# Entry
Amino acid sequence: MHLGLTHSYAALPERFHLVRRPTPVQAPRCVVFNRPLALALGLDADAVEGQAAALFSGNVLPEDAQPLAMAYAGHQFGHFSPRLGDGRAILLGERRCPDGLLRDVQLKGAGLTPFSRGGDGRAALGPMLREYLLSEAMHALGIPTTRSLAVVATGEAVMRDGPLPGAILTRIAGSHIRVGTFQYFAAQGDVDALQRLLDFVIDRHYPDARQADNPALAVLQAVVKRQAALLADWLRVGFIHGVMNTDNMAISGETIDYGPCAFLDAYHPDQVFSAIDQQGRYAYANQPGIAQWNLTRFAETLLPLMDDDSERAIQKAGDVIQPFLGDFETRLVDHLRAKIGLVTREPDDGALLNRLLGAMQAQGADFTVSFRRLADAAEQGLCDVAGLGAWLPQWQARLQRDPQPAAERAAAMRRVNPAYIPRNHRVEAALQAATDDGDFRPFEQLLAILQRPYDEQPEVVAYQQPPAAHERVLNTFCGT
Ligand code: AMP
Ligand code: MG
# Structure
């Protein structure tokens, strides 16, 4: 079968990648297939689904695949590794989609590559289902993200703490170029490779930068802008990525690498779920600062392409990075304004919003439920949302100066305040049923609910609820 793949990345010089075929698996079985995505990619969904087990396990490659593992480096929890690369992912190629954009097709968990180091090149079913569910939920929330086309169970066990069922995820991305891809060549002083990579990124993601006086600076600026928008999106829905290493930050501005990520239940700025993040480096409210740190690492790799004079290059890059946090903050405040039903701007809105978050934190109020209930309160003119007591009259007073009919305001609020997020306890339960009992119904149901996060779905309101005390998930694991 042909998937209509082209190979602009494979055409880059040899030091960008290593040719590697997926290692065949014993008994592939496609357990989830994303038909709407297949259609959006312009694939023949029936034909592809019919071959899914063979195609998306890597047992039978599409005839037009050119499988390879991408090279990259990265700062992991602040420590630089000059050579990471795809240790278990294999890029098959890219496909020109009906929207005119190229998208990578990659198999994650496809076997050993020269970058595997101590790892086994494989992935467990639970984490791959988790990535599928979370990435598709993010997409439905309207947040840029890699997508998931299929999960194939391999019929083989992978050893983690004990044996677990193995699986391969087919990941679709605008590209898999990371900050760490640039770092890989910068660490080697390979300016020629950096220039080629920059050209690739301009063609793929930032064609306008081609015309700029300083294309490298223009790309940096565009990436900074997309990351500011992305981080504001994450925070508006309570998303915590969990492993914001530079190898997990995509130059495309997509959310990438769903490991121990999680959504806030009760609001707390210091919330961390990832079991490996003992210091809270990647806590909810630290994320914008970390993004800026990562962007600074990105900027450093571009310095030789920005100006022959390194002092001037540093100055230029600094001027582009410096506004990041302010840009992020403006975008977040705009989101939060919309979340509390405001269409006008007043200088004190930031303070009003901070008092709301402070009240939520003090009361341990659920982030998602609180905002959703504000829409009900706006509609009914009520001053009653659990935990927000003294803040509500301040809000009501502000609404008086924001002319909008109550019903319209409530409807607008419901379009930006999700009712359904991938609650950690629901995700865990769905994955457990699938991996322990082979029962995919809870997974399918949760996936279906999360396709329409902003709609009231009366038959499944229980999925809006935060976890009861005994259901609360305290730690998430990346499962690598
Ligand atoms: P991650 O934490 O998933 O972002 O991965 C960090 C690095 O470890 C990347 O270079 C991965 O390719 C590599 N890696 C993660 N899991 C495995 C595995 N099971 N086998 C080989 N390499 C892996
Ligand atoms: Mg990664």
